[in-house]
Amino acid sequence: MKTRSIFLTFFLIFPSLIFAQKSESWVLTSGEARALLPNSVVLDTRSRSVFYREHIDGSRSVSWEEFSVPNLPLRGNLLPPETLKKKFESYGIDSNRPVLVVSESKNNWGEDGRIVWMLRSLGHRSAFLVDGGYSGLKQLGAPVSNQGAPKNSGKFQIKADPNLIATSSEIKSNLKNRRYVFLDTREEREFLGETPYGESRGGHIPGAKHLYYKNLLNQDGSLLSSEEISTKLGELGIGRDSIIVTYCTGGVRSAWMTAVLRNEGYNAKNYAGSMWEWSSGNDKDYPLTAK
């Protein structure tokens, strides 16, 4: 415990050194996030009713929908960059301050990963998913409150990273490219053709691998170990030389998967439009199969 206390104190005093060491990390443990808390913006993706009962002091309540196109079939796509910039800054998000995104992993849809992927894809290199979520931070003594959110603003510079963003055109052009792996992160019933969330057609992208995103979680909602994640991907024939395009219904569960895979060193990118967008196209240009 003494060693742990010294380690956390070092985090608090020298946060810039930590970022230099963890520049490619997308996921922080609860302990790492707790140590960075005083210098960070905290975004809470739990429901607003839960948020206002109790939340990390100074955090802001956000939902993936408010940053996304409101109507089908493009609902999974992000709003225009300049619109997002204004929204980010109104939430106090600053390019020079770390952002910690929390949720309750067992009960959500990967919204925390969606927010992290969104910020990273637009240039924020220090946006992190917190493994253990809100409960993990609270258990480590993070101050909590039921007061309203702060009104501070930030300054955000958009620098889109195309390596994190997949498009329908890219997928169409690489359906037979063996370097590409299309990873379907939905439930098995969706993969096999059911359309419970307003998709125009059912099935999956031909040749896609299936890995339900929650299969990378332990029963308590924490992430599997790196070895366990690597084993699951290896069983699907996915290696570190693969270009992994994740998708789901509207790019939320798949964004979470992208965040986790990026944290593990895989070359993953998220298709935000996902099945809402893809299934709205014609059968020939946007093929789907249930086989």
From TrEMBL:
This is Rhodanese domain-containing protein. Residues 36-146, 176-287 form the Rhodanese domain. PANTHER family: THIOSULFATE SULFURTRANSFERASE. Gene3D superfamilies: Rhodanese-like domain (3.40.250.10). SMART domains: RHOD (SM00450). CDD domains: TST_Repeat_2. It holds the Pfam family Rhodanese. It comes from Leptospira adleri. Coiled coil: none annotated. Keywords: Repeat. The keyword Acyltransferase does not apply.
